[in-house]
Amino acid sequence: MIRVIVTRLLTGVLVMWGAASLIFLIVRVAPGDPALILLGPDASREQVAELTASLGLDRPLIVQYANYLADAARFDFGNSYLLGRPAMPEVLERLPASAELMLTATTIAVVLGITLGLLAGGRPGSAVDRVVSAATIALQSFPTFWVGIMLILVFALVLRMLPSAGAGTPAHILLPAVTLALPFTAIVARLTRTSVAETMREPYIQTARSKGLTERQVLTGHTLRNSLIPVVTVIGLHMGGLMGGAVIVENVFAWPGLGSLVVDAVSTRDYAMVQAATFLIAGIVMVFNLAADLLYSQLDPRIRLDGAA
Is the pTM of this model over 0.85? Predict the structure, then answer.
């Protein structure tokens, strides 16, 4: 187990290097001059050139890249062009709010998705199965920003049950968490349904029934655990994807997380802030993937991370 974890961590270092290099390239080939954006369209060429030099953007690209990697190895991404303060502390200050939203959305999606998938997969072809299948297709079809706006219109403006924006109370997180969770719920439900339906055809399920176990005991005691392995994989991978989806949701609901910070940084070409935020998100995705790998052997002892049976 230790050897596998070390191998995964070394692979993660390469992944982080690739992610850091990719974002370095993307932000610099994107149109827009950070100095010109900061100074405004009325700035003279001399002013733009002076600010460009002070930001270090006049150096050769390979020199900028080498300095960037050396600083990234120390988790130092420089000062934000817009705020004038170190970028990583600003990102870490916003991280708890994004983590709270992501974990709440994940909890909703996992509990609701597994429950719906278990109900549908336990009786394939039933009315419940058809309703759940149709509902999951619909949930995956609606754009996240549209769902968020509709929830605001219904629950905040019409019914006046929940706040439409901001943070501070449990009520504030409900609408953005549900908005972020709905497509994830559909994915978990569909995968759980398929996995449970396949597991229900296994011989040991018939043996469990022949022993006199109720259908509920068969589902929860024998079927569910053996059906969770592909579900855990998707959950681990999609939790990292939630960080990207949270950017849209946080802007719709004015949630004070990484979303608004990243959007503002991209619009102002704040390289330091964009690089710090994306590097942190890549690290979070890597940790989730490692956690999903480690859960495999706990769910099914027949699976070994080193490939042995």
Answer: no
